[in-house]
Amino acid sequence: MKSGFVCVAGAPSVGKSTLVNAFVGEKVSIVSQKPGTTRNRINAILTSDDAQIIFVDTPGIHKPLHMIGKYLFKIAVSALEGNDLILFVISATRVGSADKTVAAKIKELRTPVIGVINKMDIANESYLKEARSIFDDLDAKNVFEISAIQNKGTGILLESIKSMLPEGPKYYPENIITDRPTAFMISEIIREKVFELTHEEIPYSSAVEIDQIEEDDKITKIYATIFVERDSQKGIVLGKGGKMIKEIGTLARKDIEYLLDNHVFLSLHVKVKTNWTEDEKMLGRMFREEIN
To answer: How far apart (Å, rounded) are the C-alpha atoms in residues 244 and 239?
Structure first.
């Protein structure tokens, strides 16, 4: 049995979560076209007959500009340590200073590195050369050019990952695909729909907390709060006549029902928490597990 922890690292918006979901075959991490979607470290677990691979999905590493950015940077950098392997993902559509920041952090470690150039379906040749150059400088063991969204090249990449892992035990039961609790997964689904349906600063100024979950054999009742920073943002999330909040709830409920395999009643409320992205107390509560 091969087993081990594989950190999936990279700049924001390079497709790390899409790749993790492709490996596991389930939607464990939320995805969005907007950068900075992933906020927490999430372990996604792939178990086969001869291996168990724990993929550590992380926030994108980039220079933090706000208090929440400092928390995300700390989470992402700390997640690089203590792994058997690092998958360093760079997008073939854009290479910049954030990618070089990631490379510098990885270079400080002795962990073996596999280079992954993602989004080959829409690659830019000049950025492709830059990405290859970064991996050459890092002395990556292998470099794979893939399209995670099309699931192209991920199979051979997975085999390479498996070959580089040590012999080891199963860390989790076979039926577990993530170590995150149900309430966290539900809050992430709701937050994903906020990202999908709102624009400009709203996604980055929003957070979701689960207030209560009531379960029985026929239906699961979920009460959740979406936090925003200003009254004007609350109006946008609610929408005219409650249209936006209703659409967020409808899309989220479908995914939550798939997750729980049960009928779901979802009640969403919107509250203003002024400048919560700069609030140490709230951020400490949100990222308690990652920063302890």
So the answer is: 4
DSSP 187-256: HHHHHHHHHHH--TTTGGG-EEEEEEEEE-SSEEEEEEEEEESSHHHHHHHH-GGGHHHHHHHHHHHHHH
The whole-angstrom separation of Cα 134 and Cα 104 is: 10
CA neighbor of 90 nearest in space, from 39, 126, 131, 40: 131
Q: And the tokens for 132?
A: 């290859």
> Which residue, chain included where needed, has tokens 């760079």?
90
Alpha-carbon 277 to chain mean position = 18
**Nearest by Cα to 184 from 285, 278, 269:** 285
Q: What's the per-residue H, E or C state across 101-163? A: HHHHHHHCCCCCEEEEEECHHHCCHHHHHHHHHHHHHHCCCEEEECECCCCECHHHHHHHHHH
pTM: 0.90
Q: Residue 77 and residue 181: Cα distance in Å, rounded?
A: 23
207-215: strand order across its sheet = 207-215, 219-228, 263-272
Q: At what angle do helices 97-107 and 125-138 cross, to 10 degrees?
A: 20
Note the pLDDT tens digit of each residue in 274-290.
Answer: 999 999 888 888 887 66
**pLDDT 10s digits, 96-121:** 999 999 999 999 999 999 999 999 99
Q: Report which DSSP code applies to 267.
A: E
